[in-house]
Design brief:
This is Kinase-like domain-containing protein. GO terms for molecular function: ATP binding; MAP kinase kinase kinase activity. By secondary structure, this protein is an alpha+beta fold. The chain contains 13 helices and 9 strands. Strands 3-4-7 form a 3-stranded antiparallel β-sheet, with no helix packed on it. The protein has a two-stranded antiparallel sheet with strand order 1-2. Strands 5-6 form a two-stranded antiparallel ribbon. Helix 1 crosses helix 2, helix 1 crosses helix 3 and helix 2 packs antiparallel against helix 3. The longest helix has 22 residues. The C terminus is likely disordered.
Amino acid sequence: MTTIRRDLIKAALMRAFTSIDYNIHIDFHKNYELRKQIILADNSLTEEEKTEAIRLNNRDYDRDKILYNSGTRRICENCNQKCLATLYCEYCVQNYLKANFSNWSSGNSEIDDLIRKCQSETLRPNVIIEWIPYDNLKNIKYLTRGGFSKIYTANWVGGQYEKWDSKEQQLIRFGTHHVILKELENVANASQRWFEEAESHLTISKKYPQVVRCFAPEVINGKEYTFKSDIYSIAMLMWEISFGLPPFINYNHDYNFVINIIDGMRPKIISEIPSKYKNLMEQCWNANPSERPNIDTLLERMEEIKTYYQNNTNELPQLLPKIDEICNNISSKVFTSKIHKFENLPEPKNATEEEQEAFHSKLYNLSIPDNNSNKKLSKVFKKLQINSKNDDIQNYNNRKTMQQQLNVNINDEDEVYNNPNLHSEEQDKLEIPDDGF
């Protein structure tokens, strides 16, 4: 059997996606057919790889048909309902999940209702919000600390759902794989309003996983995706690694946000960031792709920075106190993210220091009140944070019990998703030591 080259398939899918002028071809049904024809004509792929690429294209098409409730319906041979998906039946998947509602519980009816609502509206079998028993996480090891949480790695036994088996009429799991866990802080003060926002956030995020904040400005502006666009995305990751927070968490991802990115807005850099790291990061997110380093230069300079601080540990910056101070002043994003179609955008440019300061002068404040008296949710919400690629809810105090695991699926076929995996009040006494188990 020929080995399928996943990297080439991903590159071909990206070429197919970026080859279409979406200002002209606005019908997603026609776009699907255009992408299919581009894939079939791609000489870099073997026939087997083309088949796999088309399968992935079909999977995305199934998602969009269900999301927008548009397309030719077929009669499912199992449930006899008129479904839109072709690789699976959305009703069969949803009914399968509903039939299993009685087989799990978080110990809190409101959390159960939230997860069940999400499962009842599932769009595709490989993106399902689910309850994960704590015992299904093995080899938990401490990795690092971010602004709001401690980060651990673990193996998720069984793994997430991957596909629907039409013959056996059941969901198939990916298998045991590596995940990242977050030990979160200060959800004890969560109010009912906070929970309602979390519900809205989770419902929206599972449907719209786009990540505008990491897209290069030229890609947002409709230009072709290139290796230099990847370098811009790496700069966003560099900022997140150094800061412990996702970039632009206090901004609505709306038209004004997009315009600001194109006009040169970048994440704010604190003075404690080492100058060489800062300069490299700024070069990587330059508005002009030709000014960004190539991957070899980037790797070489990163190695130089790493070696320098390994040999001069006394010069390592003390970032955590500064980050904690800033985190205490950062609030939840407001829940107004929408799907936008942007046209006639200006050319990307770099902003001056004064313009950068002006970009960051307006922040939103929706923090959880410290004097919240709602005790109903506090027991289970001691450590609940629901994150997505579009919205973030920040909560922080000094408790150390892990109450949620965020799954990051390492699977070359799929996008990366942050799935809320909650466990019960009875497990609240479990402590995770800094050196793991």
